[in-house]
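Re: export button greyed out
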Amino acid sequence: MNVLVRIKRYDPEKDSKAYWDEFRVEADPIDRLLDALNTIKWTMDGTLTYRRSCAHGVCGSDAMRINGRNRLACKVLIRDIGNRVTIEPMLGYPVIKDLVVDMDPFFEKYKSIKPYLINYDTEPGTERLQSPEDRARFDEGTKCILCGACTGSCPSVWGNPDWVGPASIVNAHRFIFDSRDQGGAERLGILGQREGVWRCRTIFNCSDACPRGIPVTDLIEQVKRAIIYSETKGE
Amino acid sequence: MYYKFDVVIVGAGGAGLMAAIQLPNASVAVLSKVYPTRSHTGAAQGGVAAALGNQEEDHWKWHMYDTVKGGDYLVDQPAAEVLTREAIDAVYELEHRGLPFNRTEDGRIDQRRFGGHTRNYGEAPVRRACYAADRTGHMMLQTMYQNAIKNQVRFFNEYLVLDLLLNEGRPCGVVALEIRTGVIHTFHAKAVLFATGGYGRAWRVTSNAFACMGDGMAVAYRRGIPLEDMEMYQFHPTGLYKLGVLLSEAARGEGGKLLNGKGEYFMERYMPTLKDLAPRDIVSRCILQEIHEGRGVDGKDYVYLDLRHLGAKVINEKLPDVTDFARNYLGVEPITEPVPIQPTAHYAMGGIPTDLDARVVIDPHWTPLPGFYAAGEVACVSVHGANRLGTNSLVDLIVFGRRAGKHMAKFITENDYVQLPPQPEDFARKLVDSLYSSTGGESAARVRSTLQNEMDVRVFVERDETGLRHALDTLDGLQEAYTRVQLQDKGKTFNTEMVEAIELGFLLDCAEATIHGALARTESRGAHYRTDYPKRDDENWLKHTLAYKGGKAHDVRLDYKDVLLIDDPIFKPKERKY
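Workaround output, generated via the alternate export path:
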């Protein structure tokens, strides 16, 4: 089928501001939208710029705003979008060129919540034990591929780009609720501050945007409750 | 710009990061052409093998036996011993570092079956693969990246390696392109590790990411370092039909079975003991035989992977991601329908030759190139021989990534910097400038596409002399066409057209070494099946291929290196039956 692909373009070396470009692409209904972008790049306009790697939804490179929602271009099929699609870079991130945004601030926020296991005990000779129930407690957050789709869909981030954002909180949740971790208080201290969880207004855009099906807003709520509970407990 | 670090690691997948986190007291730079969490290690699904014995009795020596036999005896046996012994401790290290493995009822790391992994030297399948649902590689990559953050490793994200710097034959750093700005940088280092992964994009139907373009292999090859056993390339039996996206072997580990167009579970006919859990090279050949003999589905070139009998609970809990791929991309519901699959290009057993400490060795006499290391898929140590067992790629990453890191830690305290050669960036600048200035009118996409079609047809599961000679002639033409590749994008900022063109050059080099090795090896062993030489020939071919770059496609020089065997009758080469 023939698809009209509208893409927001911007090349800092040539353009004073972004503009809309259009391409007509022949595509199979079961092609990925990423395939259509590749067709454009490889046969029509080599300057079209976007990120991609695994092409099956696990590496998180090709998050972009597709018909107004953040999606991975490799997880959207042509048959799902019909014969017309609009693609923009994700909001909430500085644009580098075309659909490529600067992810450095995103990863800096991720680092700020100490995204690693903190455990002060001596390591045992074999594995640390953990029950299947305790393991299940933080399973959702482990699915995160750090694509940034949730953070780029969040109006609280758009309003305040310095805010830590949903992806970082999901990853904090992954450790706070891991029975092996002893850094929960440190992380809750960070997230209990002004730029922490409280800027979340429970809008649910993040949950809708997540290509991994993580219930992002629920996990943020769990972190909020943990902060309230631990503060109460502390006093 | 000029940077100076004790250690420069190129590649931020499992091997590169595992090495990086072994170096807490050194100055370490990790260069990655993608953000580290995008690395292809993250796509690994099924598990990481280690004889923990959490589910049933197991021993590293059984694992070693399976590895050696699975590799059709082209495995260097001392390396397989290191791999399987140290796998146990390396898995515990990852658990301690936070990797969220699935757990047994008593809280230990859960383990499941995988192809070619057996108890008591081939008796029956054993539960050896430690796993985290069907996203073990994702969890591993995340855990290692998290630990690298904890260790404050310095990352240079979206930097593409262009050259390995040698001064009078001694490694002293790398040159890389900063993709965001188009600026070329020199990294001066005492030790350099290549951990850049494989080159699965040389084929069209592939499980590999767009990033898997053979960067490290080609950069080393261009500097006179040989590539070992490149003809040994694995085609995974179960890629989604036409797409090549992987459906993990874990699906068969959990009980999934292959089904032909006549409704027969055909693997029991070929391999009565291990059936669907026979090693990948064998299963891929069996699928092709079914197709050749008219038992593909609807007479076409695919068969089914049948998971229906596993039930919704097992599928949803243990195979959630891979079954989602079938739903998303083929519109097939694995709980109620069989999934169309075909063999897909998957893994390079070959690569840059290394020793047990991941040091690069450059000739049949194991002469090291001091300060240059390689680990992971880019390297050939050789633990996979002629065919890798499922889950052993992740084992390779953690064991030899760790060994590389530890050896480099020692090396940098005992050695000083080698001076950079004059004009270190010359070679890289010429490469980039010639692409900017080319007016040849050729399209990189066309050259790449022609290569992929040729490899899919003539350098696939089955090969023969006529086909391989044809492939070599095609490659010769493509190398000539490559010199005429012209870019539309002449900009400096995030020029992915430039990146793709440079990568295409890497891919052509890897294909060249692959075809030459395959043409010369007149036997069938593991993944290398020659229809004109269908038998294994230990008398003449129990040896590793070393391919050295010449000028053009036809000018490759081949040399050979003995396979290292251990004096133990259990590991003596014999016929492979399952």
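The domain at 236-345 of chain B is CATH 3.90.700.10 (Flavocytochrome C3; Chain A, domain 1). The button fix ships in the next patch.
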